[in-house]
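Record type: ASSEMBLY
Status: queued
Input:
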Amino acid sequence: MSPQPEAAPSGVIHDIGYRGYDGPRLGRNLVARALFFHSLRGVFGIGRSARSKVMPMGLFAVIWLPALVIAVITVVTASQGLLNDVPVQFARYPMLLQPAVAIFLGTQAPQAVSLDLRYNTLPLYLSRPLERVDYVTAKYAALATGVFILLAIPILTMYIGALLAELPAGEQTGDVVLALIGAALFSLVLAGIGLLIASLTARRGFGVAAIITVLVMSYSVVSGLQGIIGHGQSDLATAGWLGLLSPMTLVDGVQTWALGAESSAVAGPPGDLAGLVFCLVTATVVVGSYLCLMYRYRKVTV
Amino acid sequence: MSHVPVIATEDLTKRYPGITALDRLSVEIEPGVVGLVGANGAGKSTLIKILLGLSEATSGRASVLGLDTVSHGPQIRGQVGYMPEHDCLPADVSATEFVVHMARMSGLPADAARERTADILRHVGLYEERYRPIGGYSTGMKQRVKLAQALVHDPQLVMLDEPTNGLDPVGRDEMLALIRRIHTDFGIAVLVTSHLLGELERICDHVVVIDAGVLLRSSATADFTRASEQLAVEVTAGTEAVARALTAAGLTVSAAGQILVVEITGEDTYDVVRDTVADLGHGLLRLEPRRHRIAEVFEGGAADVSAA
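Status: finished
Output:
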C-alpha cells in the first residue's frame, strides 16, 4: 500500500478505487493442486477452527506416541544388549493401531467432502475452471496422503529408533521401505472407502458413524470369525480367505503375501492363488471407490 | 467497444422430464447491467447453468463472451463469476479464508489471491467481521461474501442469481447500489436475476423478461419506462371537480384515490393543470412527473402475449 498523505486526518479510509487483475491465471492442473494442498491441510485441521484441530491432532498423537515409546525402548534395550531385532515389525504398526486409524478416517473423511455437500459449496467449485474429475481426484489424493502421513511418521520414528540402536541398517531399511509401501496401500484403500461413504451423506454425523462402523465392525467380525475357525477348528486356510472381507485384513494379506511381512491377522492368505486374489481385490477396491466417487459426483446437481 | 454480445443464445431449449424449462430462447445481451426477470420457475437459473456450462442444453446454442458454452466451458468459467441463489458458504471458516480459497480455485496464485480478497471484501463492505467464522454472519453479510467470491478473480462478467433474496429494505438498497457499481466502477458486465421488476428497473440498462422459458421482451430499461409519462396531481379539495375540469381541457385523467394521474401530452400540460386548479380556487399540493413502472408495462406485455 502506498503511504497516506501527511495532511490526511487519521482514521480515514481512502477509497483507492477498484483495481483489476492482470496477473497470471493458473490452469486446471495447478488449481487442482491448490485444492489438493488445501484439502490435505484440512485433513489435519490446519487452516480451520481450533475445534476442528482437536480430533485429527489428538488422534495423530495417539497413533504416533506408541511408535515413539517403541523407538525409545529399542534404543535403551539395545544399548544394554537385550535386543537384536525391533520389538514390533514396522509393517505391523498400522494393524496395531487400526482402531485409532479407523476413527481418524471416520472424522476426517467427512471433513474432506461432506462439508462441501452440506453447505452446498460444490457449485462454487464447478462454476470455476475445475472439472468434477479434478475435484474428486484432489480430494481422494489429499485424504490418502493424509492417512499415509499419519502412518508413515510413526513407522519412520521406529526406523530411526532402530538405526540409533545400531541394528543392521540394510535389513532395517529394506523393512521400512516395504512397510511404507504397505502404509501407502492402507492409505489408498481406507481413504477410498472412507470418502465414498462420506460422500453419500451431507450429514457429517452419519458419515462419522458409518465409516467407523464399517471399518471397526468389519475388522472385529472378520478377526472374530478367523479366531473361531482358525484356532477353534484349526482351519487356517478358510480363516485366511475370510481376511478378504475387511479392509484392514485385506491389506494385511497383501503385505503378508506380496511384501513378505508378518501377518497381524489370525491367518494370512493361504497360498499364492489366495495372495493373488488379495492383491486383485485390493486394486479393485481402490479403483472401484474412485470410479464410484466419480459416479457419485456426476449425480450432484448444481 | 467490441460488438461481440456478452451473452447470445439461439433457439436454446432445455427440457427436463415433464417440464420445458427453456423454450427456443433467442436473446442477445450487450455489456452493461442486464436484468433477467421472471417468476420463480421461469427458467432464469436454468439459463445461468447452461451459460456456465454446468448443464447441457437439450437443443440450441449459447455463447458467453463470444465462446461456445459446450466446447469452451472451462475458458468461460475462468472469466465469469457466479453468485448462486442458495446458501453456499461453509460455516466454520472466516470470510477471508473462504474468499482466498475461492480465488485460488479460480487460478490466482497465493499472493494475488490474498491481495484481491482484501480488496474485494472492502469493496463489498465487509470490514472487521471478515475474520470471524461465516456461521455467525447476518443474511446481508453472507450475501456480500457470496458476491465477493464471484468478483475476486476480476471476471469480465458476473452472473448474480437473486442477489437481494432475504434482504431487508436497507440491505436491498445497498446490494442494488453495489451491483450498479460493479459495472460503473469495476467495469464488469453484470447479468442479474430477480422476480422483482421494480428492483431491476433502478439499476439495469437492459431488461430481459422471460416466462415459462419463453422470451417475453428484451429491451433497454429506458424503452420500458419511456413508454408514456404521467403527472401525479394532488389538490387541497374538490378532486372530482378538478378531474372534470381537466378532462374538459382535453387531458386524459384517471383518479387513484386522492391523486389524479394526468397523461402528459407536452410541455404545456403542466400549465394547463396549474391554471385549471387555480381557476377553480383550489390549492395545488403536488404536481410531479411519474414514470410507468416496468411492472405495469410487463403486465400489459404479458396480457398482449397471452391475448395473441
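Annotation: Chain A is about 70% helix and 0% strand.
Annotation: The radius of gyration of chain A is 24 Å.
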